[in-house]
Amino acid sequence: MITPAFDLSQDAEYLILSIRVPYTRTSEFDLYIDGSDFKFYAKPYFLRLSLPGRIVEDGREKAKFDIDKGLVTLWVPKETAGEHFEGLQMLTSLLAPKGSRSAKPLIEDLSTGCSEAAGDDEDDDEEEFDWQVEQEVYKESSEEELRALPKYGFGNRRSGVFARLQEELSDVTDIKNPEGRPAAERRQARLDAEAAAFSPDHYLADLFEDEEIKGLLKFRPWWAKLSPSTEQEGEAAVSFNDGEKEQLRKFTNRSYLLDKTSRYQVWLSLVDILLAYSYEVRSTEGEHNVSECVCVCVKSSLQDVLVSFGRRVLCYPLYRHFSMVSAVVRDTIKILQSGKACVLKCLLDIHKVFRENDPAYILNDLYITDYCIWIQRVK
C-alpha cells in the first residue's frame, strides 16, 4: 500500500482533506468515517488518520476529483459545528500509529451506505484483521530528481510513476525496474527477455500446422470495411457509438507543446500502439482483449518499431507466424491511411479495454488518454 500525499484544512462546518492519488481510477474509492478515525482507500493508495476532533457521516459529505492533478478533495462534516481542530499541519502525528488491532470494518461504500462485513460466518468474525498498515508521509520527488529519471509515456513526459507504483505496474511492463535503468540497458533487457521467451517448437508448430493462421489471415477487421468519406477527401467514413462519444466528452481539452524530437517519438509510439492493437483484433477476430504489456524502451526509428513488433509476435502471443506480422503491418497502414478519425476510434477502443481492467487503467493515464486528445488536434 502507498500512503498518498495529503493536506488538511477546515472551515466552521467541514474538515477538508486534499489527497493526491495520481494514476488511480477516478470513480472507485472507499471511505470509513467514525469519530476521530478516518480511512481512505483508492487502489493502490491507503490513508488512515487519527484526527484531533470528531467527524461524522450524515449525508452532507462531498467529494471532488481533479483528473488532471490526480487530486481528491473531500469535505467531511464536523460533529460539532464551529469546533477548531488543532494541529492539522502536523501531518506525521495524524497518521494513526501502528500496533492496535481491530475487527471493525475498514471501509463503507458511500454509494450504498453499507459497511463491508469483516466476515460472512462466525469463524471469520472471530479472526481479527490488522488494518494498522505502517504508514509514512509521502515525499514528493523534486523536479531535479524527476529530471534525472528515465522518461516514458506520451511524448516521454512522465517519470517517477514506475518507482511509485512498482507493485501495480509489475505485470504491465516488459522489463523489471525500468526506472532504475538507462535507455541502453532497458533495450538490452528487452532483447534478452525476447531471446529467452522465443520457443523454436512453438514457432515451427505454427509454421507447419497453420490452418488457424490461414483463417486469421482471411479475417477482415472493421477498418477494412470502411467506405470513403464524403466530407474528408482521402479519408474513410468513421462513426462513433454513444459510448465513444460520451468518453470524448469526458476528456479534458488541452494543448501539447512538443519539440521536433518529441513529435517524432509520439508518432513512433502511436505506430507501436496501433500495431499491438491490430494484432489483437486480428488474432481474436474482433473479440479482442488489448494486451496490457507496454514497452518502456524508446524506439529510434520506424524500422526499430517494426523489428521490435515482429520479434514480440514471434516470442509471446498464441499465434507466432511471420505472415501475421505482415498482415498486421498492412492493417496499421490501412488505419493510418483512413485518417485521424479511424485512429481515434482505435484509441478509444483501447482506452475502453484498459479502463475496465486492473492494472491496465494506469496505461490510459500514461499514454492513451493523451493520444486520444492529441490526435484530434493533429493537422
UniProtKB/TrEMBL annotation:
InterPro entries registered for this protein in UniProt: CS_dom, HSP20-like_chaperone, Shq1, SHQ1-like_CS, Shq1_C
Keywords, comma-separated and alphabetical: Cytoplasm, Nucleus
CS domain ranges (all copies): 1-89
Domain of life (superkingdom): Eukaryota
Pfam (any one): SHQ1-like_CS
Compartment(s) of residence: Cytoplasm, Cytosol; Nucleus, Nucleoplasm
Gene Ontology terms: cellular component: cytosol; nucleoplasm
PROSITE patterns: CS (PS51203)
Any one of the GO BP annotations: box H/ACA snoRNP assembly
MF GO annotations: unfolded protein binding
Signal peptide start-end: none
Family note: Belongs to the SHQ1 family.
Protein name, per record: Protein SHQ1 homolog
Annotated organism of origin: Sander lucioperca (Pike-perch)
Lineage: Eukaryota, Metazoa, Chordata, Craniata, Vertebrata
